Amino acid sequence: MDRRHLLKTLALSNSAAMLGMNPWALSAQAQDAFPSKAIRIVVPQPAGGGFDFVARVMGDKMAQRFANGVVVENRTGSGTLVGTDIAAKAPADGYTLLLGSVSNMVLNAGLYKNLSYDPVRDFEPLGLAVGYSYTLVSRKDAPQKTLAEWIELARAKPGQVTYASAGNGSGQHVIAAALWHLAGVQLTHVPYKGAQAAYTDLMGSRVDLFFDLSSTARVHVDSGQLKAIAVSGPQRLAMHPQVPTLRESGIQNLELESWFGLFASAKTPAKEMAVLKASVLEAMAAPEVRERFEKQGGRVLAMGAEDSKAILKRDLARWVPLIHVLGIQPE
What we know:
- This protein is an alpha/beta fold.
- The protein is built from 12 helices and 10 strands.
- Strands 1, 2, 3, 4, 5, 6, 7, 8, 9 and 10 form a 10-stranded mixed sheet that branches.
- It folds into 2 domains: 39-132 and 257-326, D-Maltodextrin-Binding Protein, domain 2 (3-Layer(aba) Sandwich); 133-231, 3-Layer(aba) Sandwich (D-Maltodextrin-Binding Protein, domain 2).
């Protein structure tokens, strides 16, 4: 027993003795209080990206409530599969959380036939914190300025218009492939190993189009190196209010926002689950958290557990069948 624990136990013992209670029973209750150690947030992507940013913003705020702190752990490999699988197989005691997104909780269910985890059966949403739209950008020297003009060109020259992605099965690939499928045109997919390589070729006019998270694309649009054509979210973005949505551009059945939130094991005991849900709601509602997400170009969601569960099921029903129709294969 360390010194701090000893002093705490003696204080409890003295208080209990004054009240005529069993001091050791009180001590056991104190030890059983959740959480009695640091909570881990598993991030299935490397440090520095969108997953990591959301996890650290949420973790920093939740750590103010939990005396033992919150630790963000980046567990990468096979896209988002390794980290998500680690969280799915962790003890269901409330001490391991997952940073979940459309990518690992929805798209993977359509991309992989034998997924090692079930997004609905294995996980319980604690809350969806923020959503990021995708922006379709084009090389700046292209005469086309609207999505309708690009679709017209692609229809006139099948397979000659090219679009980049950060890799087969990436969010950038799925949203773009769905767009061209629904528009009824054929473009040539050029996969890269990450977004940066795609941007290099796009700005060098070696590829025509690229769908990327709006927060990342913003830098290149604002600098004038690329042109913004449309955004994939349900509404226009405050940072680019002149850029229309896909619906406004004539694509009525396509909308994708990459949401991010925290998930726990579905088998987590009810008491611990209640504590986690309350702490996530509290963190999402904090003004400083909302401000950080908005500055990064995100749309604050701050959805509770039940609303988050409904969004997850809605997106699975929408995207898994479409991915199967598109025939997209992961790398």
